[in-house]
Write a structure and sequence with these properties.
This is Lycopene beta-cyclase. GO terms for molecular function: lycopene beta cyclase activity. By secondary structure, the chain is α/β, with parallel strands linked by helices. It has a domain of 176 residues: 3-Layer(bba) Sandwich (FAD/NAD(P)-binding domain), CATH 3.50.50. It is 32% helix and 31% strand. Strands 1, 2, 8, 9, 10, 11 and 17 form a seven-stranded mixed sheet that branches. The protein has a seven-stranded mixed sheet with strand order 6-5-13-14-15-12-16. A three-stranded antiparallel sheet has the order 3-7-4. β14 and β15 form a beta hairpin. α1 packs parallel to α3 and α1 packs parallel to α6.
Length: 380
């Protein structure tokens, strides 16, 4: 057995752990931060996308150097209409995330290929017997016990495709739901990368967590065929099954990730209840940690727990929205909710994504043909 000491140990070099390490290193280069990741690389195999308007202004500088691709606006396509929304949209590939972290941090601060077995508020035991003593520990190892939450799932498979010739797609398409809703709650996402290269993802919402990879793959091929494109090759595939929280007890979920240990990312329950996305939350948490003076395990636990508990409570409206869209209505009706949401005022849509809807926005979503009838707004 050998021992290592540091000021802050972050377990899990995925999105949230990596961003905390980056922000902490920038804010306090005098302190020793250790980032511990079980896999050989940081960030897994992801293409993380986000709307610029999801972020708080102070969080942009952390993300800007990580961005691979950006679009000035994005489109949504439904059976009844097509629309471009004037909000920049960005994507980060995890290979760039890995490279940026390795460039910013001293080599001895990143331990990849090292699995944590035991985690406490001020210490970690690795599989190889190494003991790490830390002023404080943050556990960012991905989800806690998801069985404690009432879940639906957003599943997707996406590929970066190189075509035989150029395509004419110019803007990112966040949702192409032109397909028949009778097939279930499904849509395509499409991100043009170069004149003959684009990323296509098949997305579906379902109540069970298994995935039919072949079916997702076929839908991507069929989608390309709809545009008359011939696929020369495919690369950088990604697949995900994201939790969509319709309900659940935050306190139980938090405890399931480790009693008394500070948590971040999905482990802290910080994800959008309708989309499952967590990038903006991860950036915010990274700034909170970097700006905190006290990195002791107790102080970090108090700060991150209070932040996550407040966020969970404030997100009840979005969980009700997801419940109505996914469970209380038939798939065709759920589609119509999305269709009428994206027909609303553009700034309101941005606030929906950023989970910053105000009272007037919620009323607007409930009026007339709005997606969220008043009764559903207050149901638990
Ligand atoms: C394929 C995919 C695409 C996504 N795309 C988007 C998107 O476009 N926008 C968005 O906002 N969200 C997206 N999400 C959702 C969410 O943002 C991601 O899942 C995000 O990576 C979650 O961050 P995290 O830090 O909580 O967990 P992760 O990023 O999964 O990080 C957890 C890390 O902990 C490591 N780990 C686990 N156990 C141990 C251990 N015992 N010891 C050491 N390390 C350990 C894992 O290897 C992993 O690297 C996507 C999810 C997936 C799966």
């Amino acid at each position: 057995m050998s021992g290592v000491m540091c000021d802050l140990a972050i377990i899990g070099g995925g999105l949230s752990g990596g961003l905390i390490a980056l922000a902490a290193r920038r804010a306090r280069p005098d302190r020793r931060v250790l980032l511990i990741e079980a896999a050989p690389t940081l960030g897994g195999a992801h293409l993380w996308s986000f709307l610029d308007s999801d972020l708080e202004a102070e969080d942009r500088p952390l993300l800007e150097p990580l961005v691979n691709y950006g679009w000035r606006e994005f489109a949504v396509i439904f059976p009844l209409y097509k629309r471009a929304l004037p909000f920049p949209f960005y994507s980060i590939r995890s290979d760039r995330f890995d490279a940026a972290l390795r460039e910013a941090m001293p080599a001895e601060s990143i331990l990849t290929g090292r699995r944590a077995l035991g985690v406490s508020p001020d210490g970690v035991v690795l599989e190889d017997g190494t003991l790490i003593g830390a002023g404080g520990v943050i556990d960012a190892r991905g989800p806690g016990d998801l069985s404690l939450l009432d879940l639906h799932y957003r599943k997707f498979v996406g590929y970066e495709l190189t075509l035989d010739g150029p395509h004419s797609v110019r803007r990112a398409t966040l949702i192409d739901a032109a397909a028949d809703p009778a097939e279930g709650f499904q849509y395509m996402e499409m991100l043009p990368i170069e004149s003959d290269r684009l990323f296509i993802e098949d997305v579906r919402y379902e109540s069970w967590p298994d995935m039919d990879m072949a079916d997702h793959g076929n839908r991507i091929v069929n989608h390309a065929a709809r545009f008359g494109w011939r696929i020369r090759s495919s690369a950088r595939g990604q697949a995900g099954i994201l939790p969509i929280a319709l309900g659940g007890d935050f306190a139980d979920y938090w405890r399931s990730g480790g009693e008394g240990v500070a948590k971040a990312g999905l482990r802290a329950g910080l994800f959008h209840p309708v989309t499952g996305n967590s990038l903006a939350d991860a950036a915010r948490i990274a700034r909170l940690v970097a700006e905190a003076d006290d990195w002791s395990g107790t102080a970090l636990h108090a700060m991150l727990h209070d932040h996550a508990a407040r966020a969970w409570a404030k997100r009840a409206y979005y969980r009700r929205f997801a419940t109505r869209m996914l469970r209380d209505t038939a798939p065709a009706e759920g589609y119509r909710m999305l269709e009428s949401l994206y027909a609303m005022d553009a700034d309101l849509i941005a606030r929906f994504h950023a989970m910053r809807l105000g009272f007037a926005d919620r009323m607007a979503l409930s009026l007339g043909e709005g997606p969220m009838p008043v009764g559903a707004m207050f149901r638990r």
